[in-house]
Specification:
Number of strands: 3
Order of helices and strands: HEHEEHH
Largest sheet: 3 strands, antiparallel
Mean pLDDT: 77
Radius of gyration: 31 Å
CATH topology of the largest domain: Arc Repressor Mutant, subunit A
Number of domains: 2
Strand order of the largest sheet: 1-3-2
Shape: rod-shaped
CATH architecture of the largest domain: Orthogonal Bundle
Number of helices: 4
Structural class: mainly alpha
CATH class of the largest domain: Mainly Alpha
Low-confidence stretches: none
């Protein structure tokens, strides 16, 4: 989508060649996509030699699409630049001002052992319940006879 945005930006800024063809413009396929969708108007002078266009201009739908592309890229950039919080031991690169709590005192970071607590509360409880049930069924003679 970056190439789509680049082509539309150049057209919007009147910084685009007045003639393009497959030899002079490597992104002709992307240009043609935008042209076919109505985001660009141009004189199609394609021939057996390949695609070619004269006097390309951005259309109003093209300007709207460009605005959408810019806003989606800004949103992705914003998401990437935000901090991600992890409530489990983490070892990796942190942004300045962040703290790596591996090997730290649990009293300093009470969230550090939440994953271990969840495992103990849920998984270990299920396994113990299964073992007790198996022992009870075997004692009553209701277990599988292999």
């Amino acid at each position: 989508m970056e190439e789509h945005k680049s082509i539309l930006e150049k057209l919007s800024n009147n910084d685009f060649p007045s003639e393009i063809d497959e030899q002079s413009f490597p992104q002709i396929a992307i240009f043609k996509e935008l042209y076919d969708q109505g985001y660009i108007k141009a004189l199609d002078v394609s021939s057996d030699d390949g695609d070619a266009f004269l006097n390309p201009k951005i259309t109003l739908p093209g300007r709207k699409y460009l605005a959408e592309l810019k806003s989606s890229i800004d949103t992705v950039s914003s998401i990437v630049n935000n901090t991600i919080h992890i409530n489990a031991p983490f070892q990796g690169t942190l942004q300045s001002g962040e703290h790596n709590f591996i090997g730290s005192n649990p009293a300093e970071n009470p969230n550090e052992f939440k994953l271990a607590e969840w495992v103990m509360d849920n998984i270990v409880g299920v396994v113990l319940s299964g073992l007790i049930l198996s022992a009870l069924l075997a004692w009553l003679g209701l277990g599988s006879n292999a």
